[in-house]
Amino acid sequence: MTTTGAERPTTGAGRPRSAGGRSRRPLLVAVSGPDGSGKSSLVARLRPLLGERGLTVVTTHCYGCFLCRGLPVPPRLGEPGEPGGGEWARRAGDPERRGSRLRRVHAFVDAGELAARIAAAGLVARTRARAHGRRAVVVTDRGPLDGLVKFDLPEGSRAASVYLRIARRYRLTLLVQTGPDTLRGRGWEEVAGPPTAWWTRYRGWSRRLSRITRIDGERPPSLVAATALDRILEEVRERELPHEESGRPARRHVVVSSYDDAENPAYRGGGALVVGKVARRLAEDYRVTVVTAGRSGGSEERDGVRYVRLPVGRAGPRAGQLLFLAMLPFVARRIPHDLWLESFTPPFSTSFLPLTTGAPVIGIDQGRSAEALWRRYHIPFFLVERLGLRCYRHIVVMNTADGAVVRRLSPRADVQVIANGVEPRALDETGLGSGQFILFLGRIDTWTKGLDLLLDAYERAAPPLDLLIAGRGTAAEERRLAALVDAHGHGPEPRIHWVGYAEEERKRQLLRDSAFLVMPSRHETFGLVALEGMSYGKPVLHFDLPALRWMRDGGDVAVPPFDVAALAERMGELATDAALRRRLGRRSGLAARHYTWDEMTGRYLALAHRLLDTPAGPRRPRKRGASWQTTR
């Protein structure tokens, strides 16, 4: 999305004409993030780039109020153990820790100076814009989000409400996300404390604000600036200038629906990650909305993508899935769209969505589990699934085995095989074959993920390495796993450790330190965790399910499905033979290079273009017996 023309049609006086009577106030943009994340350098890069596109740009550096500049650590505010060398933020939920009176005064002063700075910058921008007949943009290298994070006052406090009022004046906040390792390399921890504590605050407060766009600050500076530039130009075009005045066609609207979401504590599995990656890639060329589940309704914007949450989470994971499926057809009629991507949701997978919309619908088979649920509960969910699949003319599957099954169930569908991806990673030859434990990483679902089979096999094998189980599930599933771990935890020293949910940094550490991964699933559609482990050069031990055969000859070790004795035998072999792990790990790392997110999400983007750029194509049913192909 590179747009060079940004001149607004002018009146006879040569001044910018307001869009339908809208205010001529400058577009106010904040670049937020911890110090050291590259905010100031990004603002410096954006200024000439925006100017080249015909915008009047005013930047202001908001490093904090005069108290912050004069007193690096505010007096009498410190308590040991808090970030910043002296409790920069008191916990909002504890009335005894609301911060001192001086601290609250400090917050008011800081917010007041921020408001004064943006008001002065806005006045300068309007004056210059009138003189040159241009639109104006004010970019600040700090915004209300940074103030809320810095003081972390109770949400209902007066100081917090002042920051929130200022936040409503901003049309866009670019949150530059830089990993803790990068911040530590810039000396952050010695100055301000653990970066993870600060990022926890940023995540918490960013959910309370709207118009937040997250940008990956780990990418090269030029790519970070290009992403930020595109987002600002999109805001300029779509929120200030009507399409009929701009002379440009409206961007097509693509909607992606998925019950799984990164904010859902009971799931947030691989499906949420895939949907997020695909949505961000589609947002390069389209307006994108993600419809997902939540405990309460509402919407927010992240990384240029609008997220709409349906209030079904309070019903529980099982009933919530049914409610989500029931609501989708009604939501599809209320949200105008040109293309809909539906990630299938258990237990029925499909929601008959193509019957409720005239736009093309792409079904994404990430969770078609009706057959597995039939084997588990003996309830014929698959009858509804098979009927629903026949409504779809476009279906994406993760592997060739599922492609053959879906092609048989829906002969007229155009079935595309698009695998999941992983971030490219250099293979560490020195670490091949090493490892301290056997790792299971994934959602806690005892039957589906085969955790009961894993614990039986581990007890039978008695390998020299401990077993670590990382993941989170529903409360019932976690209780079931805890009971299983207790039943198998014989001996003076526990050798089976359930470590709970692993955030991104913790997950990377577990993958690096593991000897190999074990995936004893009874049902899978791809196995994204396996691919992530392979990218670290780790062998993967699994049952030989058709859906996992994409790993063949890629450093995997497959045993007959649900054969606990065979699983135990190969587990013991891998745990005792470092040379074997080294040989298989090298093959795993090389195989993972063929599955990059850039390649896989690019295939979704190509499919969207094919459907939206050829109007007659999407509605035309394919002939019975036609073959299915992988998207190129």
Give structural notes.
- The chain is α/β, with parallel strands linked by helices.
- The chain has 3 domains: 27-246, Rossmann fold (3-Layer(aba) Sandwich); 253-421 and 600-613, Glycogen Phosphorylase B (Rossmann fold); 429-592, Glycogen Phosphorylase B (Rossmann fold), CATH 3.40.50.2000.
- It is built from 22 helices and 19 strands.
- It has an 8-stranded mixed β-sheet with strand order 8-9-7-6-10-11-12-13, sandwiched between helices. Strands 16-15-14-17-18-19 form a 6-stranded parallel β-sheet, sandwiched between helices. The protein has a 5-stranded parallel β-sheet with strand order 2-3-1-4-5, with helices on both faces.
- Strand 8 and strand 9 form a beta hairpin.
- The longest helix is centred in the N-terminal third of the chain and has 32 residues, at 101-132.
- It is globular.
- The two termini are 22 Å apart.
